[in-house]
Specification:
about 425 residues; Dihydrodipicolinate Reductase, domain 2; Alpha-Beta Plaits; NADP binding; NADP; EC 1.1.1.3; homoserine dehydrogenase activity; ACT-like_dom_sf
């Protein structure tokens, strides 16, 4: 089986290296040689293990290629190229979660019975897509909760471990190569959101775009929030959450406080982890490297082996093509909330805050006031509410912003029980 690699960067070169290094093992497992024969790159590559070209047509025009592996990144160009390839009934593998977040429907229609693999698009080396499609196929999936971005997890882990500020840890993550020079895609939640949509499509047949769901990043999490979390035995993690509520699917990506004894709360550093709760199995946790050349190459090659075995892919994405599930409106999210407020330290402020909460059906579960520094005229207040609706908390925040005693941006975080 001859393979073309579209994108000879960190992942592409790792795919080629692994195929060549472990070719005897791979052949033994699928009874066929899988041979990388050509790769595409933006510029010539020194010491490449296979021929590398810069002209995509030079690859697309070859009739001897059996599988095209897309590792380019981006959305529009990969979609155009993959569409052309699928129309020719040639197999495709992609690691491109942004592409799948926006073009799942079109690609499924184009692929039909043509092999289309995308295990590497979510959580790197964790075979979560195969687990959902095959290992847990007898289960109704009640919920999926995951740490889906290693950069965000590293930053939050180090903030807690070193009592450090966000910008300090972000800089360190960039120095170590865990964060890009422009880290927006990771730290603002878009990367995790794309992955969550792919998983929700498989589990629930839900076909929505990133713009349809709640997405928040970690850039506003402060050392004060870490302090509060530790005081009350919580851990802050950036989560992608999909779960059934009232016959609708709740989808959201945001930082959340977790009880420190929960399994996901113990996942630190750049690792990923995904908790899946099914009606037959109950909860199961899948843990591993979520990014990097070798982890992603492992998932790509697993798809190549499946194609070599000629295993039929009965449904590329969801099994529920005519699902009755609808997306839960963001305002209908129902959970507990954490609030951090910086206020003038004067009589009547706390009374006014609690009055506003009461007016919007919000009750207080936990309250803490951080001691102010000498000569400061402001105090920091921390609240955890009982369960309430998202619409209530958002109205409360708007009302609080109108008060003269509020002296900085209000920070809100959801609590995942």
């Amino acid at each position: 089986m001859k393979v073309a690699i579209l994108g000879y960067g960190t992942v592409g070169s790792a795919v080629v290296e692994t195929l060549l290094k472990n070719q005897d093992l791979i052949k033994a497992r699928c009874d066929e040689e899988i041979i990388p024969v050509i790769a595409l790159a933006r510029s010539p590559k020194k010491n490449a293990l296979i021929p590398v070209v810069c002209d995509i047509d030079e690859i697309l025009e070859r009739e001897d290629i059996d599988v095209f592996v897309e590792l380019m990144g981006g959305i529009d160009l990969p979609f155009e190229l993959i569409s052309k390839i699928l129309k020719r009934k040639k197999a495709v593998i992609t690691a491109n979660k942004a592409l799948l977040a926006y073009h799942r429907d079109e690609l499924e229609k184009l692929a039909q019975d043509t092999a289309f693999g995308y295990e590497a698009s979510v959580a790197g080396g964790i075979p979560i897509i195969k687990i959902l499609k095959e290992g847990l196929s007898a289960n109704n999936i009640f919920s999926i909760k995951g740490i889906l971005n290693g950069t965000s997890n590293y930053i939050l882990s180090k903030m807690a471990e070193d009592n450090a500020k966000f910008q300090e840890v972000l800089k360190k993550a960039q120095e170590l190569g865990y964060a890009e020079a422009d880290p927006t895609f990771d730290i603002e939640g878009y990367d995790a959101a794309h992955k969550l949509l792919i998983l929700a499509n498989i589990a629930y047949g839900l076909r929505v775009k990133p713009e349809d769901i709640l997405i928040e990043g970690i850039s506003r999490v402060s050392d004060e929030d870490i302090y509060f979390a530790k005081e009350f035995e919580y851990t802050i993690k950036h989560l992608g959450i999909a779960k059934i509520k009232d016959e609708k699917i709740e989808l959201r990506v945001h930082p959340a406080m977790l009880d420190k004894d929960k399994m996901l709360a113990k996942v630190d550093g750049v690792m990923n982890a995904i908790s899946v709760y099914g009606d037959i199995l109950g909860e199961s946790l899948y843990y591993g490297a979520g990014a990097g050349g070798k982890a992603t190459a492992s998932a790509v090659i697993a798809d190549l082996i499946d194609i070599a075995r000629k295993e039929k892919n009965s449904a590329i994405f969801g099994y529920l093509n005519d699902t009755s599930y609808k997306l839960l409106d963001k305002d209908e999210i129902y959970t507990r909330y954490y609030l951090r407020l910086k206020v003038l330290d004067k009589i009547g402020v706390l009374s006014k805050i609690t009055q506003l909460m009461s007016e919007h059906q919000i009750s207080i579960d936990t309250f803490l006031q951080k001691s102010k520094k000498e000569k400061e005229d402001c105090s920091t207040l921390f609240f955890i509410t009982h369960q309430t609706y998202e619409k209530n908390i958002q109205i409360l925040i708007q009302k609080l912003k109108e008060q003269e005693f509020i002296k900085s941006d209000i920070f809100m975080m959801r609590i995942e029980d």
